[in-house]
């Protein structure tokens, strides 16, 4: 089915920042592919919220760390909507542990999901974007890639790698008018931060100049800007949205 709307794929869109991004893009007129891995109920919630606002979206279950799943995700988008204009690499995990306590399988799982997952998603969308000579790739990184945060070695390593990919691809893909940027959120009120002990959350909150955690919608709003025509001259950048934490 051909579609006159622009089309966005959002990975990890069943909750938190990913859900907010999917809803915000749909509210801006995008047709959205809601990628999720395990949380079918959360993905259905994202879909319902989009449809309640008159938006258009479909679900796609698949692991970002699986190349075939990512290939099928893009094929699904093209089959339903005819194209892909925006890829938001949002899916990620955080296992908060000091490096000396981090097991090899926990390290590998973090890298595979947060970094390899983005690589596989990008590989899957490049051909259709290059053919149409237009596209946006938005990587959701983390303030941990800018400022060291104790207990997040694997996470920071994966997100720092994501920033490196962003800068390289911005140069490689500029001839095809494909813009690549990263957003590095600070502490955002999501299920992920909700798993932290309250004492740790208080310490993190006190370290933020604005003295509060961000909201998923504040990240989503910046994604919609980078996806818009107003951001035609923005590529290769790492944008910290963190209440001043990395200043």
Outline:
About 45% of the residues lie in helices and about 15% in strands. The chain has about 250 residues and is α/β, with parallel strands linked by helices.
Keywords:
seven-stranded parallel sheet, Rossmann fold, 8 helices, alpha/beta
- Which segments are poorly predicted (pLDDT under 50) over 5 or more consecutive residues? none
* CATH architectural category: 3-Layer(aba) Sandwich
Please outline the major beta sheet.
7 strands, parallel
The rounded distance between the terminal residues' Cα atoms is 47 Å
- Give the % helix: 40-55%
CATH class type: Alpha Beta
In what order do the strands lie side by side in the largest sheet? 3-2-1-4-5-6-7
- Mean pLDDT reading: 94
Beta-strand content:
15-25%
Helix count equals 8
The domain tally reads 1
From the alpha-carbon coordinates, what is the Rg to the nearest angstrom? 17 Å
* Strand segment count: 7
CATH superfamily: NAD(P)-binding Rossmann-like Domain
Provide the succession of SSEs.
Answer: EHEHEHEHEHEHHHE
Predict the CATH topology.
Rossmann fold
The global form is globular
Secondary structure category: alpha/beta
Protein name: 3-oxoacyl-[acyl-carrier protein] reductase
Pfam families: adh_short_C2
EC number: 1.1.1.100
Family: Belongs to the short-chain dehydrogenases/reductases (SDR) family.
């Amino acid at each position: 089915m051909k579609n006159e709307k622009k089309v966005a794929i959002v990975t990890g869109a069943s909750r938190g920042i990913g859900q907010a991004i999917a809803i915000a893009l749909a509210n801006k007129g995008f047709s959205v592919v809601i990628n999720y891995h395990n949380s079918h109920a959360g993905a259905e919630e994202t879909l319902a919220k989009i449809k309640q606002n008159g938006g258009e979206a479909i679900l796609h279950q698949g692991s970002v760390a699986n190349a075939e799943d990512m290939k099928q995700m893009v094929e699904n988008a093209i089959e339903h909507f005819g194209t892909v204009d925006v890829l938001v690499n949002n899916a990620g995990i955080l296992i908060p542990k000091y490096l000396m306590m981090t097991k090899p399988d926990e390290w590998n799982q973090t890298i595979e999901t947060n970094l390899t997952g983005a690589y596989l998603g990008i590989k899957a969308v490049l051909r259709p974007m290059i053919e149409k000579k237009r596209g946006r790739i938005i990587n959701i990184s983390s303030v941990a890639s800018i400022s060291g945060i104790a207990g997040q070695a694997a996470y920071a390593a994966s997100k720092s790698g994501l920033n490196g990919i962003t800068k390289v691809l911005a140069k490689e893909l500029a001839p095809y008018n494909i813009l690549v940027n990263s957003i590095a959120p600070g502490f955002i009120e999501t299920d992920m931060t909700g798993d932290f002990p309250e004492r740790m959350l208080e310490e993190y909150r006190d370290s933020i100049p604005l003295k509060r955690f961000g909201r998923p919608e504040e990240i989503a709003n910046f994604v919609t800007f980078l996806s818009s025509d107003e951001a035609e001259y923005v590529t290769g950048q790492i944008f910290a949205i963190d209440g001043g934490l990395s200043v």
